[in-house]
Amino acid sequence: xxxxxxxxxxxxxxxxxxxxxxxxxxxxxxxxxxxxxxxxxxxxxxxxxxxxxxxxxxxxxxxxxxxxxxxxxxxxxxxxxxxxxxxxxxxxxxxxxxxxxxxxxxxxxxxxxxxxxxxxxxxxxxxxxxxxxxxxxxxxxxxxxxxxxxxxxxxxxxxxxxxxxxxxxxxxxxxxxxxxxxxxxxxxxxxxxxxxxxxxxxxxxxxxxxxxxxxxxxxxxxxxxxxxxxxxxxxxxxxxxxxxxxxxxxxxxxxxxxxxxxxxxxxxxxxxxxxxxxxxxxxxxxxxxxxxxxxxxxxxxxxxxxxxxxxxxxxxxxxxxxxxxxxxxxxxx
Length: 333
Description:
Layout: H1 6-11, E1 17-19, H2 28-36, E2 41-44, H3 51-64, E3 69-75, H4 84-93, E4 98-103, H5 108-116, E5 120-125, H6 128-136, E6 141-145, H7 160-168, E7 175-178, H8 184-192, E8 198-200, H9 202-205, H10 214-222, E9 228-231, E10 239-242, H11 245-254, H12 265-268, H13 270-279, H14 302-329
Parallel strand pairs: 1-8, 2-3, 3-4, 4-5, 5-6, 6-7, 7-8
Antiparallel strand pairs: 9-10
Helix pairs in contact: 2-3, 3-4, 4-5, 8-14
């Protein structure tokens, strides 16, 4: 069975499965593998140190796939901001047709650049109110991110089972479900709740093509659904990361009444996180992870993973659910 939605039409892809843009992970190897498998791969713009490096990474991805792929641009609240407009111009110059955006309201400046050049915008939101605001401002797709997600789930703590249909009830443009999705069951559930596709991050981290050290991939397999920590809540910038000695220490320190961000800055720096991803030293820093870890039991190729998800989804719809309907039909009156 093929699942055709407005997402497959808009992005010109076979399966409505999008790989989220992830810092240090959204590189050409992973994005190309997802696109080649029929999904929509995404490079992470700010993983590259300069706009020119992003142009080079786009070229590298194009050498690996002839299928559509996009670029993520997240506008972070930070003291030393990168030149976001220069990165956006690199995306435009490279002829990218769709971008994934997230972050602070300042991202709207980039939307204007993208829209002026006919680029489709998939915007990640963690609440219905923000989704409606983004829709009014002209984005093309909402990626609604439930509380289960890795990264920044917002401050409302609304899980996908509620957030997805709540958004689908009000948002008119295509909706992608994100957060805690890792298999065919989550895929079908997302469609049933009103989404027209899914976004997966953590599950794609535990694949052969993900540019992540094998020890980190194994941590995704070893952890269960309880294997995350919420950090930064005290600073109103909540983040979900993998449970480890380092993230446990971050939780312990920030629980102190007089703690400040400076007290944990040495533990959560991006440079330390890069060491974790590249060298597999889980004691060096933090790494992103969602509750989907409880559904991750192996490290397949991306092609194997996507084929499995679509196969599972097909079986659920064609066999299990239809079988339940048939059973109901033959029950005595």
